[in-house]
């Protein structure tokens, strides 16, 4: 499912009186809220759906797949998702 399909599904769930633009604003608002919640090393927990957490990945060595030359991959933060009870049964 891509964003357009998600907006369409949200619009369908909200009813026929909701415009596509309103549904897209709602999806965008949820995405912005999740991003904002993750800033500052916090987690976003949606009960039953799952939890988004910020995780640190340490620096490591790797290689360039085109040239096969070794390279250093810097440390970075990434987002991890732990599914909630409603998603685990799918």
Q: CATH class of the largest domain, please?
A: Few Secondary Structures
Shape: elongated
Q: What are the secondary-structure elements, in order, as H or E?
A: HHEEEEEH
Structural class: alpha+beta
* Side-by-side strand order of the widest sheet: 1-2-5
* Number of distinct beta strands: 5
Determine the CATH superfamily of the largest domain. IHF-like DNA-binding proteins
Mean pLDDT: 92
CATH topology of the largest domain: HU Protein, Chain A
Give the C-alpha Rg: 18 Å
CATH architecture of the largest domain: Irregular
Portion of residues in beta strands equals 25-35%
Q: Are there runs of 5+ residues with pLDDT below 50, and where?
A: none
Number of domains: 2
Please describe the biggest sheet, giving its number of strands, its sense, and whether it closes into a barrel.
3 strands, antiparallel
Count of DSSP H/I helices = 3
Spatial gap, N to C terminus? 16 Å
Provide structural commentary.
With 90 residues, the protein is α+β, with helices and mostly antiparallel strands. The chain folds into two domains: 1-39, no CATH class; 40-90, IHF-like DNA-binding proteins (HU Protein, Chain A, Irregular). Helix content is 39%, strand content 30%. The protein has three helices and five strands; from the N terminus they run H-H-E-E-E-E-E-H. A three-stranded antiparallel sheet has the order 1-2-5. The protein has a two-stranded antiparallel sheet with strand order 3-4. Strand 1 (44-46) and strand 2 (50-57) form a beta hairpin. The two termini are 16 Å apart.
């Amino acid at each position: 499912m891509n964003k357009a399909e998600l907006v369409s599904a949200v619009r369908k769930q909200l009813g026929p009186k909701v415009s596509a633009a309103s549904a897209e604003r709602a999806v965008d608002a949820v995405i912005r809220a999740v991003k904002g919640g993750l800033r500052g090393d916090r987690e976003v927990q949606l009960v039953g759906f799952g939890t988004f957490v910020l995780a640190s990945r340490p620096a490591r060595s790797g290689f360039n797949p085109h040239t096969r030359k070794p390279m250093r991959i810097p440390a970075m933060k990434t987002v991890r998702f732990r599914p909630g009870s409603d998603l685990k049964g799918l």
